[in-house]
Amino acid sequence: GPLQAEIKDVAAAQALADVMHARDLVERVEVISFHDEALVEISRLVPGVRTCLVASRFGPEVVERATSCGAMGLVLNIRRLTVETVERAREAGLRV
Fold first, then answer.
1. Residue 96: enclosing H or E segment and its boundaries?
2. Which of 2, 8, 62, 75 shows a CA-CA span of 20 to 30 A to 56?
3. Closest C-alpha to 29, from 44, 10, 42, 11
4. 82, 80, 61, 63: which is closest to 72 by C-alpha?
5. Would you kindly state where each structural domain of the chain is located, as residue ranges?
């Protein structure tokens, strides 16, 4: 299965991009982050990378955040998850 790599900021995105290219890991690594900008940056540096936005405090607007930063999925704090958020995510084509 895919490896998961969490990035905390844009600098981490740049460092991870270098490693992914050097070791040919684009197909194997799924990148997750709480930070929209970090996901935007890794997507720019590593075309085709799979990304997921992580959120612990959120409302249904998290779906728009995920789609706007190009994420393929959402990793959400299950205690805060509502049916509305799940439905919005699925309509947007996101994996939850």
1. none
2. 2
3. 42
4. 63
5. 3-91
Q: Are strands 73-76 and 29-33 parallel, antiparallel or unpaired?
A: unpaired
Token pair in block for residue 59:
């409302």
Partners of 50 in beta bridges = 30
CA distance 7 to 9: 6
Cβ proximity of 69 and 42 under 8 Å = no
Please write the tens of the pLDDT for every residue from 31-90: 999 999 999 999 999 999 999 999 988 888 999 999 999 999 999 887 888 889 999 999
With beta carbons less than 8 A apart as the criterion, state whether 57 and 89 touch. no
